[in-house]
Batch of 2 targets.
Target 1
Amino acid sequence: MTKRSSSLLKPTEQLLDKPALRRGIANHLHYTVGKDAEQVTDRDWFMALAHTIRDRLTERWMKTTRRYQEKDVKRVYYLSLEFLIGRSLNNSALNLGIAENFRQILTEFEMNESRIADTEAEAALGNGGLGRLAACFLDSLATLDLPGEGYGIRYEYGMFHQHLHQGWQREQPDNWLRYGNPWEFPRPEILYPVEFGGRVVEYRHENGQAAHQWTDTEHVMAMAYDMPIPGYDTDTVNNLRLWSAKSSRDFDLEFFNAGDYIKAVEHKNLSETLSKVLYPSDSTSLGRELRLKQEYFFISASLQDIVHKHVQHYHTIENLSHKIAIQLNDTHPALAIPELMRLLLDKFYLTWDRAWELTVNTFSYTNHTLLPEALETWPVPLLERLLPRHLQIIYEMNHRFLRDVAHRYPGDGERLRRMSLISEEGTKQVRMGHLAFVGSHRVNGVAQLHTQLMRDTTFADFEQFFPQRIVNKTNGITPRRWLNEANPPLTQLISDTLGHKHWLKDLTLLKQLIPFADDAAFRQQFRAVKQHNKVQLAHFVQQRCGIILNPHSLFDVQIKRIHEYKRQLLNLLHVVTHYVRLRDNPQIDTVARTVIFAGKAAPGYAQAKLIIKLINDIADVVNHDPRIGDRLKVIFIPNYDVSTALKIIPAAELSQQISTAGTEASGTGNMKLALNGALTIGTLDGANIEIREEVGADNFFIFGMNAEEISALKRNAYSPLFYYHAQAELRMVLDMIAGGYFSPDAPDRFQPLIDALLSGGDYYCLLADYADYIRCQNEVTQLYRDSEEWTRRAILNTANMGKFSSDRTIKEYAQDIWKIGEI
Ligand code: 26V
């Protein structure tokens, strides 16, 4: 395009004042939605608002891209199979600073803001903590003006919707794109072929070296969709690029030429299944072919895009690791390591040593769990069939790696077996954690304890062989989503009290609130905010569940995926204990409690689904027992997602973080709740330890065994039956559940849960921690009576949570691992 014609194409500047926004909304209702003012629905309004925001983001986004190009900055690419973004309308309006203008405009038109916001479908492209962390990181990268881009999959169906049917979980597909996604830009021209299958041919390259060609493959096309990611109070807008699978035209042609039109279209469907659905399990690696294909599809497209952009700009691959860093979010994208090797060897004809140097210097890997069943492995025969060239490269990596290990530890065959990238027990499997470790220059855990456990247990041999490679990066959360958006009244109170809003960009400034913990008037205001939020939550629960909550009771919450290691069942053991005490002592002087649960179970995880049913069966009995009244209520809020979290968290007073010590890598819900002024009852696990350190031991309810005690207990033949026989109350509670007290229609229903505890070894040590948990819960009850002291401690929680901003986490990654800087 000539200079003259491109200046003719200059768009109108998209301003943030009210008249400009009003005009934008009117135009979009008219020209984008295509409706007359009389016919517009709440969803039409949402679309118009979203497009009005998007216009403003687009301008800043292009400027950001240009700025990065001109300054020739080093960039980071965050590769993740999951981005649990949630809704974008409110968050973008707040980050752009136009939320108040929007509110006023909607009032002018007598529109209901929250009803409009509720028509937005969540981008639920993640399971839980790992996916939400990726979303918080994107917010922090943009807010810190750092050149970081996300790469992921544009799943057609995100995390399933959870319904309750007679207390059981039922899954429904999440058709989130049904009404269109106003935030995305389809890029039909950004299209890469992804190959599968075929065979490898060895030949001699003109440079004289042996070379490899992967041939006779099948293709699926990856098409890009871009989503702008705005920072808070900055003009920086970064990009999230999501891939969608499209059938390859070449591939179809075979069948078209053979005259089989229907077959051709069938095949089209088949290849497009690759980005159809998010795998809804985060606990067990199933080794499913479709999942492996998703992983490779995703990393192949991303690497082609990254390498293409790099070479187009620099005309060389030699400076790759100086100009880009790639972060692997768990092992799910770890095939990127052999894939980059393949590109460097087979397309750029680098030597193995040079290719390896560039690869290791480019990649780093974050581990998010040590639970053995969640560590990914892929059967060698499957890789051989789908990705034969990658398998060759993995074998070569392993050969060279084990040669180095053998050199350092001569004669230590056992060590070689332990460290190999290939496990040889039964069907050979590639160990993705080992692969990711060996191919990265930094490997990190997500909280201090977790990182130490990586060094001491799962990766102990690797720590010895590559000292310094394992580093810690304690997780964080974005205060823009989890305070500014979640809790407007608390945000207002803090800003009014401190006289500024800088704390939203530097969360350590919350420490300025510390003196106000001793100010009775401030405590009163802080309490009023919490009370307001509790009433709001009670309204929501009444609407969604038809249950009336007592907003003067203690709101006690455990909200997270349902997992045995997270011990929702231990929470229930306390609920039943408390229930029986109330039932049998009507005069007992106690405080009213509402125990709130929310969370999804993986569809194939039978024990987790049974725990949901038990919560609901217990709720049925407790909530309808006239002897209890409203002194105790139990409630399961269905379909826990980002939007529901935004409603529950600001209303919570007690945050349950009760995993068996050593099992929860970090937790991030613990941070969201404490930031919003909930007190934690927790074990010394994951980031709880660091939260307690920050907020002060006096302001944290701690119980249970620590990680070392748990591991000693297990070493010394832990006997849950010993605890069962020694504690009458515990025995009674377990006998009630086992005997059908809560399930008279099916007395044996919960036997599998009881068996796991009494005859299955109680892997997560619920019985060992029960007594101390009950003791600690009694302490909670005692303190809640003293509402001034409770509030004082709650304020000190909020005031001391600054460390857990994801801004701090991202700055550490940027400095220590990615070596990227602010521009
Ligand atoms: C594993 C698998 C196995 C195959 C099927 C799909 C799938 C998806 C995810 C996972 C790994 C989940 C690991 C995870 O979510 N870890 C959580 O990461 C959080 C962020 O670091 C952390 O706060 C939680 O403690 C940790 O459980």
Target 2
Amino acid sequence: MIADELRARAACLREDIEQHNYRYYVLDDPLISDPEFDRLFRELQSLEAEHPELLTADSPTQRVGGAPAAEFSQATHRQPMLSLNNAFEDAEVEAFDRRIREALEIDAVEYAVEPKFDGLAISLVYERGLLTRGATRGDGYTGEDVTGNLRTVRSIPLHLPEGAPEVLEVRGEVLMLREDFEQLNRNQQAIDGKLFANPRNAAAGSLRQLDSRITAGRKLTFYAYGLGYAEGLAGFGSHSQVIDYFKKNRFLVAPECTVVKGLAGLLDYYRTIGTARKGLPYDIDGVVYKVNSLTAQQQLGFVSRAPRFAVAHKFPAEEATSTVLGIDVQVGRTGALTPVARLQPVFVGGVNVTNATLHNEDEVRRKDVHVGDTVIVRRAGDVIPEVVRVSVPGPRRAEDRFEMPVRCPVCESQVVRSEGEAIARCSGGLYCSAQRKQALLHFASRRAMDIEGLGERLVDQLVDLDLVRTPADLYALAEEKLAALDRMAEKSAANITAAISKSKNTTLARLIYSLGIRNVGESTARDLAAHFGNLDALMQAGIDDLQQVSDVGPVVAESLAQFFSEPHNREVISGLLAAGVHYETAAPRPVANGAAAGRIFVLTGTLPGLTRDDAKARIEAAGGRVTGSVSKKTDFVVAGAEAGSKLEKALELGITVLDEQGLLALLDKND
Ligand code: IVH
């Protein structure tokens, strides 16, 4: 055959094979037998082997995985991947529907309704129709680039049909069908390999393989449920149209996706899917309701990290019965003492549970739990298992009653429980090795400094042998010292030293989060980093300055101020910087000299045409800053419908109040 014919044959085979993949994995309606399929596949393989110039990135032969990667690179989401608020009771769903009806001023809302898949959220980016990147959700802003692994998933199209937009990001869930999960565990058993507790863990483990050939051997499935960033995409009117578009473009969409009307429609759907749940091919942990109209979605916008236009209605957590063998006390990172019931092992919510939290002393009393009691245990999703109630009391001898210790079980410091607080705490601070261990584990965790390999066993030894007292000490650890530890070969010592050294290069948000300041989670750390831009400014900020950051209230501000006033903490920070830890400084704000540049804005109430995110983005683009609370430093308060106390405060302080039009006019104005 001449070159053109070969090229045409390869293209035709690729298209045929992808079409058969689609019929088999998405439509569940194959046209040809497995041997016939294999024949086409082998023909394409040998054609590409003989003529490597014919190989394309979207060839189905690329679905078998390639050479192992050393690590995953980071993938930044152009639009953050948010989470959903949860509802458990019908009353919460009723309130959700009421809020939407009131905001939209309509009688009955149309909702797109879907199963809530119990898998992993994924983003797929197609550029000019070609799959160019697949990434995990990560912290919602940055995930891991797992393109090579996702290419092996047969229900993910490697390219889109003709007429694809310039850029299209499809979001959905990667999961393992129950059938494939059971088969995988049977195979694992046969080779004495690791068994997975549930399909979700199996999917997560398979997707995070550095060797995509292993992923290719695990059967994963992708269900599409949402649109991310897009360029050149024809406007859609509703979510259900987006779903139809996905189907037309060969994506797999759950057949249970549909549209219902009003609260009654939602609750009806919840019960129908609840009944059908056991018969579905995959695990779900609830259903998701989304306002169907995209214009209405925009109008409703977002609160904090979740959309106001959608909610997850969760199924009740699974429960099981077990016996309390003992009640231990665990010391957490902030010194909190938590009573934990040691249980007769029981399989619940997809895992073997041997411990369940009792939260605090008052809860133990309220539930009246004693050692020897038979109890109901509950576990849902990733949540820590908990003791719900006693089902059959045990013998209840005097020693079976739980007493909160007066001294920390780890460091023997005094235990204090302040008035009005439910939590008892060890007063030992970082003198307490349990707190030190937890602080180090937190520091090294994936979302913080991401030091791979620095796990519990190693941290235990480092602290017990007094090799490491603070996070800063990690950077001075000699490789020989590490290599001499238990279960530590030279190679792993070298890997850990390398991982520690690599973590020196980080972001300000991660660094702030890694310090383990009370009440400062990941998203607060990110807001602080964006607001202050460097560590010095943050450390010098007073309570008022801190409260200028969106979502920072008096409690968080107090925690921060207290943390930084502690000389010991300042020493740890200077130790880290001296050891070479450094962060990328946030990109400088765009130079702007308009009327909004350098001004501080507070948004309150609902604006008629702009969502809060839009308004914020526009203000920031014009060089202004948006903060969460009104103070003397505020320059403008932008007030919409149902503005509350912030508007009152602005009027009290004599601050200029703008409506949406006023804001837009100001943003247009150039000095
Ligand atoms: S929509 C802005 N739809 O739930 C809303 N999420 O708590 C974005 N999930 O991380 C999510 N099934 O992994 C949506 N039908 C569905 C879903 C779904 C499962 C997961 C998803 C996300 C989490 C949000």
